[in-house]
């Protein structure tokens, strides 16, 4: 979990190579080639007219959190094992897509939540295997490279 958090911190600090691919008035999506796997990294950025605390409440990875209510790509989120107050092993499921051509997925990740001195909040995760969460029938087991969300306070 700490390695995933450090990798996200490095992505954030390195502005090189990001290329815009989509943008609305609210969100800008960029990509760049990954140095870890044969594919691309993607990041979405936007400024929300809300306090950092309220935004964090919507995105933080906790059982019973708000993410399953607003994110149509997250069907369920459960904590398999709480390692500490800030680190846990979690299972996230996604619904089928494209008229059920794409099967539902399940992801098992170790997740860390951090808050920095400047008020920035981070959730970082990466794939892990856990004996209490073997692959489930009717789901394809997905694999997450280091990923996560930053919630960064801005003036005003």
Automatic annotation (TrEMBL):
This is STAR5 protein. GO terms for molecular function: cholesterol binding; cholesterol transfer activity. May be involved in the intracellular transport of sterols or other lipids. May bind cholesterol or other sterols. The keyword Aminoacyl-tRNA synthetase does not apply. GO terms for biological process: cholesterol import. SUPFAM superfamilies: Bet v1-like (SSF55961). Residues 1-156 form the START domain. It holds the Pfam family START. Keywords: Lipid transport, Lipid-binding, Transport. InterPro entries: StARD5/6, START-like_dom_sf, START_lipid-bd_dom.
